[in-house]
Amino acid sequence: MSVSAPRSAPGAAKGFSLAELLVVLGVISILAATVMVSLSDSRVKARDAQRVSELQNLKVALELYRDANGGTYPASLSDLTPTYVDPVPSDPLSGNAYTYVPSSGNGTYVLIAPDFEKASNLPDDDKNGTILNQDCGNADDPLPYCVQP
Hints:
By secondary structure, the protein is α+β, with helices and mostly antiparallel strands. The protein has one helix and five strands. Strands 1-2-5 form a three-stranded antiparallel β-sheet, covered by helices on one side. A two-stranded antiparallel sheet has the order 3-4.
């Protein structure tokens, strides 16, 4: 006994119906939207991680500068180039420079990343409150991200 494929009527069109094509396009659209939302959040996390990394690198460069210059911090971040950092990093999204505020006389500073995108991406060493007359957020709204020695 042999089994054969059903035969279509002579002259009938072969292919997918319009309804089947629309269902497939709908499923593809939903999957694409889900992937785009997921990638968007990953990009935000990556930019925030880059900001933290750059501030930590600047912190190290500032300490190296202080050790080599009699215990004083530079007047501006541009004083770190080209020996300690080259070029001075800037925000990965906006291109804005990070805020650097050296103290006068007490040997400290504050580095601020004002464009941090998501508070949950902040590391534990964020400084809250007002530091050297700079707003470094508070417990309710910890943005912007600040570091100091």
